[in-house]
Amino acid sequence: MSIQIIPAKNLFTLHTAHTSYQMWADERGILHHLYYGPAIGDDDLRPTEFYSDCGFSPNPAGVEVRDYSLDTMSQEYTGCGVGDYRISCLSVSNGDGSPLADLRFVEAKLVPGKYSLPGLPAAFDEDGDCQTLRVVLKDPVTALTVTLLYGVYEKADVITRAAILENGGTGTIRLHKAASACLDLPFGEWELIHFHGRHCMERQPQRAPLSFGIQTLRSARGASSHHHNPFAILAAPHTTEDAGDCLGAMLVYSGNFKIECEVSQLHSTRLIAGISDDDFCWTLAPGESFTTPEVLFSYTTGGLGELSRQYHRFLQHSIIRSPWKNRPRPILINNWEATYMDFDGERIYNITRQAHELGVEMMVLDDGWFGERADDTSGLGDWWVNEEKLGCSLSDLIGRIRALGMRFGIWIEPEMVCRGTRLYAEHPDWVLAAPGRTPATGRSQLVLDMGRKDVVDCLYGIFSALLRDNDISYIKWDMNRNITDLYSHVLPAGRQGEAAHRYMLGLYDLLDRLTREFPEVLFEGCSGGGGRFDAGMLQYFPQIWCSDDTDPIHRLKIQYGTSFGYPPCTMGSHVSASPNHQSGRHTPLNTRAVVAMAGAFGYELDLGLLSEEEKAQIRTQIDTCRKLQPLLLDGRYDRLTDAMTDTCFTAWQLTASDASRAAVSLVVLNPQANPWPIHITLKGLDPDAHYRDSRTGKVFTGAALCHAGLTLPILSGDYTAVQILLERTDT
Ligand code: GLA
Predict the structure, then answer these.
(1) Which residues have C-beta within 8 Å of that of residue 729, sequence separation ≥ 6?
(2) Which of ligand 1's atoms lies nearest the C-alpha of 527?
(3) Of 218, 240, 238, which Cα lies nearest the Cα of 229?
(4) What is the pLDDT of residues 623-660, one digit of tens each?
(5) Atom of ligand 1 minimally distant from the CA of 529
(6) Residue 88 DSSP SS3
(7) What's the CATH superfamily of 649-729?
(8) Beta strand pairing status for 416-417 and 446-447?
């Protein structure tokens, strides 16, 4: 049983294969957190609790016990205003204006299977691996009821959490903050690893010890953002890739979020994750409820590499819905960095033909095919095909591409509109903009109010027709600015604080409808690259364009950081031109391909400019990519070096789930004169099996490769890369 309830003690223990999680409700109804960590069996951990009369930590009403204070207890989900001064899950104003919520235990129930969250992406359970614990807490005065949901995935070593807040009373309650979960670790030194960044340099890991006080990671941009990812890791100080305690908290949400950590006066650590309280206010009339997004917790003693693999497997298995998640993705050519918006149908067809000759399987027509979209200052929202620009109809173009045996994909940016379009002229009130104010633009575009049903229905009509009327195999769904002027014309003044989350609910509704109706279409998410790379989006998009920066040397860091939480097969990654359009850096074609093969692979350059020798290389790359795809989809991923601090080279490894094959990739960052040897030890191979090195034909045991390692020949020149394929052999 993965969930154990001892009613006499109100003690609840969640068991996964390697971890335990324990909580209990005391006689006063406070739900204490006792433990999250390596498996501890059925032990009752209440004696590990620490009570002290801490001074200036109040005692709850009616409790004259000086060492009993909410301010010093580890709790599962905190109320507010009643004596815990740390960061809290809730902030409310009740009908009488009071900012108080005092949550007391009502009941706990085991529910078979996995709960779902209406309107929100959430983990599902196809294999019967999950059980749900529902714990109900209630404020005795306002009757605000908080139902805590715990999804216990036994084999996956993942515990999901979410909360449903319901107004069971008679007064209106305003939620100014409603977090998804709190994790109150009573003991231990923790280091926080988080993933910050900017456009063209997303998800850069940063690791630092948590110190007394609060550290906050957040996005208030209306998207999970390039700048902070809704994923954080707490690691014990000496945790490495291969060993040590660490736990992750990943939000299944793509909008404004907050992950906060506080080290308290007594040296306990509280982590709270959920929707950001920036500009948030949700009104709960009597009987109404609010559902928070989900958080995925996972814990391991096996180091950061194992934690990443737990998330990779879980996202692949229980978050991504698309049937494409288990399929090799078509190798594509995207025309963006080849032509930008300067194309017609003939140019696109020529690119397709050249790509087809080299073995590419799909043409993706990027931005600029619709409306009056000559450049990025106009046209978004007018999704009629610009036949004058193309010189043909879309179906003619697709027909010619399909006749080559190639699939066809197309770029869209549904959530936006430009001034000067028909859509904007007809529906100026569809954009987020406050009365009497001119809204700010970003990339010359305005943001549609996705919280409006009429907007979502209209977009559904446009894009379902596009997919129904055309032979389209792939959609690149972009979002190229962040939200400002958060004001919805359909919400009353007192409910404007709901606009940002309602935007997300509308977006998820649209994605849900389109992806359910067109399950065979491969959707790739994008937001100026990786500005919305999160588990929420992965529910609908099995891959996401990782970054607008295609420089392979920058990508080493971006893909490295992304890999801590997200499987490599979800990272869109393309071979682009050299010199690179973002950085101006020159790199060999082989290196660009080796780096792109660590993700969902494709090309994004003008193939007409390549030499015959380079074209031959591309044919070989496509063959190699096809061999690697199964490893990428269901294999194990290892970071062999630390891409953030590497000065000589960066290396990573993909290994088949049965350890029958592996691929090691390595990029030299800085060639040396009179160099030190390049030596790497591998990971995850079967120690007793024999593996043949494809380059040298030499055979080594897995044990030798993982301990003695491989020494590479001297690699000189700028940014040389090698790929070593290892195949299990009987000899
Ligand atoms: C965004 C995307 C790019 C490209 C452009 C088109 O920046 O990330 O890949 O599609 O939009 O405008």
Answers:
(1) 690, 691, 692, 699
(2) 8
(3) 218
(4) 999 999 999 998 999 999 999 999 999 999 999 999 99
(5) 8
(6) coil
(7) Golgi alpha-mannosidase II (2.60.40.1180)
(8) antiparallel
Question: Ligand 1, residues 526, 543, 574, 580: which to mutate, most atoms within 8 A of Cβ?
Answer: 526
Please tell me the distance between residue 548's alpha carbon and the centre of ligand 1 in angstroms.
7
Residue nearest to atom 12 of ligand 1 (CA): 367
User: In the chain, what are the domain boundaries?
Assistant: 3-315, 649-729
E strand or H helix that includes residue 270: strand 269-275
Q: 530 C-alpha to center of ligand 1: Å? A: 10
Q: Give residue 525 CA to ligand 1 midpoint distance, Å.
A: 11
Closest CA to 647 of 664, 670, 666, 679: 670
Which DSSP string corresponds to 138-198? Answer: E-TTT-EEEEEEEEEETTTTEEEEEEEEEE-SSS-EEEEEEEEEEEEE-S---EEEEEEEE
Whole-number Å distance, alpha carbon 216 to ligand 1 midpoint, is 30
Q: How many C-beta atoms surround the C-beta of residue 168 within 10 A?
A: 15
Bridging pattern class, strands 332-334 and 362-365: parallel
Are 162 and 295 spatial neighbours (Cβ–Cβ below 8 Å)? yes
Q: CATH for 3-315, among 2.40.37.10, 2.70.98.60, 3.40.50.300, 3.30.70.2740?
A: 2.70.98.60
pLDDT tens column, 431-488:
999 999 999 999 999 999 999 999 999 999 999 999 999 999 999 999 999 999 999 9
Place of tokens 């007391």: 104
- Candidate of 201, 369, 480 to mutate for ligand 1, largest count of ligand atoms within 8 Å of Cβ: 480
pLDDT of residue 731: 59
Beta bridge partners of 69: none
Name the token pair of 208. Answer: 């630092």
Q: ∠ at Cα 271 (267, 276), nearest 5°?
A: 140
Residue 311: closest CA among 242, 243, 252: 252
For residues 583 and 551, what is the distance between their CA atoms, to the nearest angstrom? 7
Indicate which residue of 102, 382, 498, 534 is catalytic: 534
Residue 528 CA: nearest ligand 1 atom is 8
What number is the average pLDDT over the span 137-158? 98
Q: Single out the residue of 73, 85, 96, 257 nearest to residue 179, CA to CA.
A: 257
Catalytic residue among 44, 614, 693, 718: 614
Residues contacting ligand 1 via CB (< 6 Å): 336, 366-367, 376, 411, 478, 480, 526, 528-529, 545, 548
| Whether 262 contacts 251, CB under 8 Å | no
Q: Is 534 a catalytic residue?
A: yes
Protein residue closest via CA to atom 7 of ligand 1: 528
Q: What is the pLDDT of residue 149?
A: 99
Q: Tens digit of pLDDT for each residue in 175-205?
A: 999 999 999 999 999 999 999 999 999 999 9
Q: What is the CA 96 to chain-centroid distance, rounded?
A: 40
Instruction: Give the Å distance between the CA of 582 and the centre of ligand 1.
Output: 13
Please state the atom number of ligand 1 nearest to the C-alpha of residue 366: 10
Report the separation in Å between the CA atom of 478 and the middle of ligand 1, taken as the mean of its atom positions. Answer: 7
Average pLDDT of the chain?
97
Residue 415 annotated among the catalytic residues of the structure: no
| Whether pLDDT at 366 is above 70 | yes
Report the side by side order of strands in the sheet with 661-668: 636-639, 649-655, 661-668, 721-729, 690-693, 699-701
pLDDT in tens, 502-550: 999 999 999 999 999 999 999 999 999 999 999 999 999 999 999 999 9
Residue 21 Cα to ligand 1 midpoint, Å, equals 43
Q: Please report the pLDDT score of residue 730 as a whole number.
A: 77
Q: What is the pLDDT of residue 425?
A: 98
Nearest CA to ligand 1 atom 2: 528
Ligand 1: which of 202, 335, 366, 481 to mutate, most ligand atoms within 8 Å of CB? Answer: 366
